[in-house]
């Protein structure tokens, strides 16, 4: 089952809209919800992406797959997996801080996000300046 680009864009837009509506209601103090409930659309979307990524990576384990054909592809998928886990760690730490479950400094909450941004800049630089030597 494959989703078209329009379906993926629509799904992303709907989850983002739902998250922003819930966030505005929480910030306007119209809804006394827990911060973990506010982030449910983000976590559902991330879970769908993680499952799709893991299924694609597991497809490399089937018999008859030649590992030499996609060595760059598996590195990219591994980076995507690490990026998703860093985003998840940031969201969980942020919710815990906002809900006052922890007395962690705000600078420590943002460490996964900073690592994600630095990794993204390294990946971008690698893709821009990489010269293939065959």
TrEMBL record:
Which of UniProt's keywords are assigned here? Membrane, Transmembrane, Transmembrane helix
- Could you list the residue ranges that cross the membrane? 36-58, 78-100, 106-129
Protein's UniProt keywords contain Plastid = no
Q: Which domain of life is it from?
A: Eukaryota
Q: What is this protein called?
A: TMM60 protein
Native organism: Asarcornis scutulata
The record lists the lineage as: Eukaryota, Metazoa, Chordata, Craniata, Vertebrata
As recorded in Swiss-Prot or TrEMBL, the protein's gene is named Tmem60
